[in-house]
């Protein structure tokens, strides 16, 4: 699936392989080196969203966070085994009833 392909290709920026390669090439990184175990990193979640325009108006979802108003396009996470297209349809139904 698309989600599995994306997850398989994403690696954290400070991987041990990158640091070790730099040292092997004679260019060790300057300053402190902070390595993260990729297995300990939170998983990347693929999301899908819809841009819905009708009669010149765009559909946005309104929400508040810490008292501040925000707007975003409808959408959400792609579930395991779900296509991004199916996720958009599901999220539109869940968030708007469309």
UniProtKB/TrEMBL annotation:
Gene Ontology MF term list: hydrolase activity
Gene3D superfamilies attached to this UniProt entry: Nucleoside Triphosphate Pyrophosphohydrolase
Family note: Belongs to the Nudix hydrolase family.
Cofactors: Mg(2+)
Record keywords: Hydrolase
Domain Nudix hydrolase: 43-98
Name this polypeptide is given: NUDIX domain-containing protein
Coiled coil: none
InterPro entries named among the record's database cross-references: Nudix_hydrolase, NUDIX_hydrolase-like_dom_sf, NUDIX_hydrolase_CS, NUDIX_hydrolase_dom
Organism: Streptomyces sp. SID7499
Listed Pfam families: NUDIX
Presence of the UniProt keyword Transmembrane in the record: no
């Amino acid at each position: 699936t698309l989600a599995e392909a994306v997850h398989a290709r994403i690696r954290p920026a400070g991987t041990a392989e990158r640091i070790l390669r730099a040292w092997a090439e004679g260019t060790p990184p300057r300053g402190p080196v902070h390595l993260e175990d990729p297995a300990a990193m939170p998983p990347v979640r693929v999301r899908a969203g819809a841009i819905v325009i009708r009669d010149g108006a765009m559909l946005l979802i309104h929400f508040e966070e810490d008292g501040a108003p925000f707007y975003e396009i409808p959408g959400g996470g792609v579930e395991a085994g779900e296509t991004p297209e199916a996720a958009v349809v599901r999220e539109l139904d869940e968030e708007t009833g469309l």
